[in-house]
Structures are given as C-alpha cells and as structure tokens.
Amino acid sequence: MAEPMTRRDRNAEATRRDILAAGREIFSQRPYSEVSGLQICNQAGVTRGALQHHFGSKLGLFMAVFEGLQHGVSLQITEAMDEHQEPWDQARAGIAAFLDACTQPAYQTVVLKEGPAAIGWERWRELDTDYYAHLVHAFIGLLAPTGLGDYASAMLAATMRGTLTELSFEVAQSSDQALARQEALVVVDRLLNSFRATASNSPTPEPIRIGIGQLRAGASAYLDRVAAGETINVLRRGRVVARLQSTSWPTPTWR
After folding, report:
1. Which residues contact 249 (CB under 8 A, 6 or more apart)?
2. Which residues of 8-29 are buried (b: 16+ CB within 10 A; e: fewer)?
3. Which domain holds residue 243?
4. What's the pTM value of the predicted model, to 2 decimals?
5. Contact status, residue 81 vs residue 93, Cβ threshold 8 Å
6. Angle between helix 87-101 and helix 177-200 axes, rounded to 10 deg
C-alpha cells in the first residue's frame, strides 16, 4: 500500500501543477523563443529554483506541456472511436477528432506551430509516433483488406501518418480553420473510400466443398457456417449439385 502524501509532498505537487498551468497558458499564447523562465515563474508565483527542481529548464516545462496535450488528444481520439461499432465509422470518427484537436489553440500553438522548432523535428516525430502510431495501426487494421502483406501494411501506415501530419499543419496555418478542417476531412473521406474499394475488390475465398453425406450428417453446423458468410458447394459423384450461401440460404441454388 502506498504511503499517504505528507504536507510537503502535497505542497510540492501543487507547485508543480501551478508551474505546468502557467507554462501551458504562456506557451499557448507566445512563441517559444520569446518566453523566458522568469515570465513563467512570475505567472506561476514561484521561484526559479522551483522551476528548475520540477522541470529542469524552460525546455523541460515545454516538453511536459507538449506531451500533456498529445496525451489528451490521444484519449479524445480513442473515445471518439469507441462511440461507433462499424470499422469505417470508427476510423472516420477518430480522424475527425484529431482534426478537431488541430483547431484547438493550445494544441495548435504548442504542438503544431512551436513544437518542431522548440524540440527539433526528429524529436517531434518520435513523440508524434509514440502517441499516435498505435492509432494509425488500428486504422490500418480496420481498413486494410484481408490478406494484405506486412510490406503493404507498412506503406499504408506511412501514408496515413504522412497525410494526417501534413493536414494538421495545413489546418493550423489556415486563416479559416473551420473550413480547412472540413476540407481536410473531405480528403480523408476520399482516402478511406479508396481503402474501402480496395477491400471490396479483394479476391473472394474459394467455396468449401462437401459431399451430400457430409451435409446430411452435419447439416446444422454447415448451415451455421453459411449464416456466418461462408459459401459451401455440395458435391454428388464429383459434381457440384448445390451451392449454399448466405444470400440464398435457406433456399439453396440447386443445379
């Protein structure tokens, strides 16, 4: 069992929250290069030593604000996806939630505008991958056609990450962000529809082949498989005499 927090611990945690809140407010309103540690301390009502103790430096505080915003948006995306059952709706809802975040002032300024310059492009990409790669791969798992190879899946993931990254920057830099967000979603819809078309054009599995005797012996089990979407060819003396499939069941197509 964890030991209860002492008054000193509670005071330290409150000071950390105050500094974090001040940093989020200031970094959301001003370019990173124009913010000083003294401004942050004055806003939070703390000493320079407190800033250094809890975050190490101005950059350390910026990183904490940055990652907090990324984590929050990641949760919003997951919640949006969980509200739907159909894979296509889940994917679209998740991406729409991400584009919505790109219009939020704090996320837009800290993550999209100031982030790459403040922490460096490579580090920015690493953090972006840490928070969103699992969501991108979830989209690919929902959208990719059956039998897609690992190489093709990796290319789809790279395409999705690149598309969402560039769209997020475009939305953030637009003078009409509501319109930019709407246009970005149209682009995403077309991309998702292209995946849907690819999936629908994927090869149809070969029908299962059984004899009439097998059908008679296990009719219930075979009909359950038909109801689940499988197609069964019934053979007599090596020739297909019936095809059972969900579009025609329970009335089979006799030949």
Report:
1. 223, 226, 227
2. eeeeeeebbebbbebbbebbbe
3. 208-254
4. 0.70
5. yes
6. 160
Instruction: Give phi and psi for 136, each to the nearest 5.
Output: -60, -45
| Backbone dihedral angles phi then psi of residue 53, each to the nearest 5 degrees | -65, -45
Q: Are residues 224 and 151 in the same domain?
A: no
The verdict on 63 and 175 lying in the same domain is yes
Is the domain of 104 the same as that of 128?
yes
* 230 and 172 within one domain: no
| Residue 213 belongs to domain with CATH number | 3.40.1620.10
Measured distance between the N- and C-terminal CA atoms of the chain, rounded to whole angstroms: 72
Residues 128-179 pLDDT 10s: 888 887 777 777 776 665 455 555 667 777 888 888 999 999 999 999 998 9
Measure the CA–CA gap between 93 and 79, rounded to whole angstroms: 9
pLDDT tens digits, 66-108: 999 999 999 999 899 889 887 778 888 888 999 999 999 999 9
Q: Reading across the β-sheet that carries 208-211, which strands appear in turn? A: 208-211, 232-236, 239-244, 253-254
For the record, the structure tokens of 105 come out as: 């002032």
CA distance 237 to 222: 20
> Distance (Å, rounded) from C-alpha 131 to C-alpha 67?
9
Based on the fold, state whether residues 127 and 63 are members of the same structural domain.
yes
